[in-house]
Write a structure and sequence with these properties.
Elements (H helix, E strand, L loop, with lengths): L5 E5 L2 E4 L6 H7 L8 H10 L9 H12 L3 E6 L4 E6 L2 H17 L12 E6 L4 E5 H4 L4
Parallel strand pairs: 4-5
Antiparallel strand pairs: 1-2, 1-3, 3-4, 5-6
Helix pairs in contact: 2-3
Amino acid sequence: MRGRLGYWIKDEAVLKLEESKSHVEAIIKNPTLFGMDHEEVHEAYQRHGEKLGLEGKAREELMKKALIRGWIRVRFHMRGTRWSIQCCDLEKQMNTIKYFISYLFDKENDHKTIHEEDLVIVSDMEGGYEKAQAKRFRMPD
């Protein structure tokens, strides 16, 4: 079942989001994992005049901080059967992305999490961009 899948990844760590949970929710629940603290998270929402958990300007601020600290955001979109991957530096983090795609093929594919033909779109904070079928991102055996 592919549904609404989301992940945070860093190096070889994989944090799978619970069904229907958002990426910012993961930051709010465990800010220290992302190099932040509860006060920093709450201040971001106060600064933007937003309710905690709202997907607005505070969310963008927190997501950028997580990306800068090496985390990679991954979301599967049913429409278009595509994977959206956001990172800080595509060139520096491509091996981590390939490791993750291989992980999906090797460790989770008994649930048909990823298909070779799925579209994978990777973008970084500097405008770097790469788009190809998932099989292109798989690590060589």
